[in-house]
Amino acid sequence: MITPLLRKFGYFYTEIEKLYSDKEYEIFSVYDKSSKIYLLKLFKKDYAPEKFLNEVKIYSLLCKTDNPFFFKYKSNSNDEMIVKEKYIVFELAKMDSLINFISEGNFLTEQSAKIVAWKLLHSVKYMHQKGIAHRCISAKDIYLDRYYNCKIGKLDSAIILENADKDVIQNYFRKDIVKLGLLLIQLLTGKYILENNKDLIRLIKGKKSDNTKTKCELFWKIIYMNGVFDFSKDLKNLVEIMIFGKISDIQVILNHSWFSEIENDFEKAGIGTKDEFKKKEGANTP
Fold first, then answer.
1. Is 127 exposed, middle or buried (0-12, 13-18, 19+ CB in 10 A)?
2. Do 83 and 102 fall into the same domain?
3. Is 116 in the same domain as 249?
4. How confident is the model at residue 250 (pLDDT cuts 50, 70, 90)?
5. In terms of C-beta density within 10 A (0-12 exposed, 13-18 middle, 19 or more buried), how is residue 7 classed?
6. What's the domain range around 23?
7. Contact at 8 Å (CB) between 136 and 156?
8. What's the pLDDT score for residue 276?
């Protein structure tokens, strides 16, 4: 039976099942003619054309087949039908969303969080090298493949910083690093600490003239109100730098002493992906 959806997608897919829908787009699982499964993101007709084209451009810049940090991207932005119907096709996640690993009070050990943070930092570093800021990094939109590479699965909030001046670019990159610092805390506590916490939001958005040491002390006071956690001194220092240090270069974060034993952490975790990760990392560094 030929359905409207099959016609819409050019008869490239044999089976189509809707998985998710919101006010802007719908997500389908689809099989191509070789029985390989993909996810297809179909934008609603009233979705702004410029936003759709911006997202297609971001996917084409980031989601190449040799890039371990993002879902492989299948759509061709020059295809008239794809632009007309407004959809993007990308690979299906091998493992579930990161949020499912840290929900309901579950959290990662410091060693495991370090491995995930290391790879996630490299993912966003790659975006920044391409002149792209993510702007809305969230655990629910990050997926892990079988090598524990973090794949960022939602790029509709990202912005291409073409022709922006240096101060604007650094401001966007700093905001990404702040969000990564908060995400690291979420990995280690199992809690999204900004949720309904106006005091913490005000603290993070504080004035430039505010005393950094005082802000850090208040920050940890709020964190420890949410549970008993045993964080290392290096970790606490790193989080303080990410959230309050006004850093715009992710490499500064990767050079921090908390990551000094990262190769040993890979080996202790028994992942066996250190060489594979380094090989892919080198292949994707511009």
1. buried
2. no
3. yes
4. very high
5. exposed
6. 4-91
7. no
8. 38
Q: Which two tokens stand for residue 76?
A: 């061709």
Rounded to whole angstroms, the Cα distance separating 133 from 155 reads 10
Pair (110, 174) in one structural domain: yes
Domain boundary (67, 91, 115) is at 91
Instruction: Select the more confidently predicted residue: 271 or 245.
Output: 245
Contact yes or no for 153/93 (Cβ under 8 A)? yes
The verdict on pTM exceeding 0.70 is yes
- Does 10 share its domain with 113? no
- Please compute the mean of the pLDDT values over residues 259-286 and round it to a whole number: 57
* Number of independent structural domains in the chain: 2
* Residue 254, CA atoms < 13 Å, CB-side half-sphere: 16
34-40: which pairs have CB atoms within 8 A and are 24 or more residues apart? 37/92, 38/74, 38/89, 38/90, 38/91, 38/92, 39/71, 39/89, 39/90, 39/91, 39/92, 39/93, 40/9, 40/13, 40/16, 40/87, 40/88, 40/89
Q: Which of 155, 95, 143 is nearest to 119 (CA)?
A: 143
Q: Are residues 14 and 134 in the same domain?
A: no
Q: Write out pLDDT tens, residues 132-186.
A: 999 988 888 888 766 666 788 788 889 999 889 999 999 999 999 999 999 999 8
How many CB atoms are closer than 10 A to CB 181? 22
Find the CATH number of the domain harbouring 29: 3.30.200.20
Instruction: Please state, as a whole number, how many other Cβ atoms lie within 10 Å of the Cβ of residue 236.
Output: 15
**Which of residues 91, 114, 144 is at a domain's end?**
91
Shared domain for 162 and 235, answered yes or no, is yes
Do residues 223 and 269 both lie within one domain?
yes
What digits encode the pLDDT tens for the residues 217-233? 988 988 888 778 889 99
Q: Is the pLDDT of residue 277 over 60?
A: no
* Distant-in-sequence, close-in-space partners of 199: CB < 8 Å, separation ≥ 6: 222
251 shares its domain with 153: yes
